Amino acid sequence: MSKLNFIVLLFIAASIFSCDSTKKLHSESKKIEKMSLSNKEKVVALLESFNTGDKTPISYINPEKYIQHNLAVGDGLAGFGEVMQHAPPQGFKANVVRAFQDGDYVFTHTEYDFFGPKAAFDVFRFENGLIVEHWDNLLEVQPPNPSGRTQFDGTTEITDLDKTEENKTIIKNFINDILFEHKNDKITSYINPKKYLQHNPAVADGLEGFGAAMQYFAENGLVMEYDKLHKVLGEGNFVLTMSEGKFGKGEHTAFYDLFRLEDGLIVEHWDVIQPIPAKEEWKNNNGKF
């Protein structure tokens, strides 16, 4: 072999090694980046990928185990992919208004353009840094309520991280005492009577607004019954509850309620109320909760 040919072969080998090394370094860099992100950051990146088209956040979902509780979507990544295939030409959009983390759970309050404008709460469960389970509740975006508040505005700052468990207990007791057992004489033990900001599309601020809504339901033969509390998740001054019961004319319903607390009292509330479809309409068998 001539000296020139030997040098050429060395150059080619070095180029292949360099290219291979670059790919490995890039792959390792991606792994390190994935590991360095918090679970909350992974969820926000996944939802915002609707806007950017970035494929990287899909890797935050466990491809072997993804349990889906949105009953209109098939199980696993295959179900997720099927929804994406039916996206309109402009795609889906997501604006994450609030994001929280509680242990292995991340929950978000999001404004979607998802087959039309939607208000939603999403809950994701992680195992070993990957998303393995998802729940949500969605409602069409509504006009501002009688107090001029929307389904998204209001406080976003997370405070009182040292009070997370205390606040979760307060909300659990509120659901049990007020919504399950209707001990309305205890309501001011849970809701601040001087400051209660309401984001439900049909209800005004304050205890007066809450009372007026309950009176309207009673006078029109409507119901709002909470039968079972499934999850209580929180971070600092924010607590989310996932409940089921009956609403309106008695329709089987999922209630997602987000509360903000100050000094042990509820001062702000957002919710998404969604009917639970009949079982024959489900696209997976995991149940709503």
User: What would you call the shape?
Assistant: globular
**Rounded Rg:** 24 Å
Give the count of structural domains.
2
Q: Which segments are poorly predicted (pLDDT under 50) over 5 or more consecutive residues?
A: 2-19, 21-30
Q: Total helix count?
A: 5
Distance between the termini: 71 Å
Helix content, binned percent: 25-40%
The strands making up the biggest β-sheet line up spatially as: 1-5-4-3-2
The major sheet is characterized as: 5 strands, mixed
CATH topology of the largest domain: Nuclear Transport Factor 2, Chain: A
In the CATH hierarchy, what is the architecture of the largest domain at level 2? Roll
Task: Spell the H/E element sequence.
Answer: HHEHEEEEHEHEEEE
Structural class, from helix and strand content? alpha+beta
According to DSSP, the number of beta strands is 10
- Strand portion, in percent? 25-35%
Query: Under the CATH scheme, which class of the largest domain?
Result: Alpha Beta
Mean pLDDT: 90
